[in-house]
Amino acid sequence: MTTLPIVENLCFTAHNVAADEKKFSGLTVNGLYFSDRAFATGGEDWYFTRSYSKGNGRIATTVDSMELTVYQGIVDFAISRTGIVCEFDPVTAEETRVRCLTIDYHIDDAAWADVLTQAKLVFINATYFRVRPAAPAVPLAGDGAGSSQGHRVPKHPTRR
Fold first, then answer.
1. Which residues lie across from 16 on neighbouring strands?
2. Region (Disordered): which ranges (predicted)?
3. Which of 48, 56, 134, 152 registers the highest number of CB atoms within 10 A of its CB?
């Protein structure tokens, strides 16, 4: 079996962004969910979750709706009003075939408040987690809306 190279920086625009907390019997799951299409319909799906049972938990990164789940392995996670940048350690980069993940999104104030609240719960006590100010949108040629789709890359070759 051929091992595909690790993508240095996988970039995409999430058209679906969700953040929530689910409670089960004795378990709480906090999550951030990003997809470039409808969730679980193909394309890029990246989820960051933490489940707590009696106050403990570890961070899970899920790629493409449960196709791959890795635990821990993040060395830097920066979130802003307009996107995230997540860098993985070498072992996790080998598993995900991605060294750095950049996701842009356009969400309203209420959604941003939900995303930020859940991000702080998912990454509670994580020394690599930081909130950064949003960079001003830079319109692409012919696009007055400031869309970031101009730097979207194709689907990672190891998936699908």
1. 35
2. 140-160
3. 48
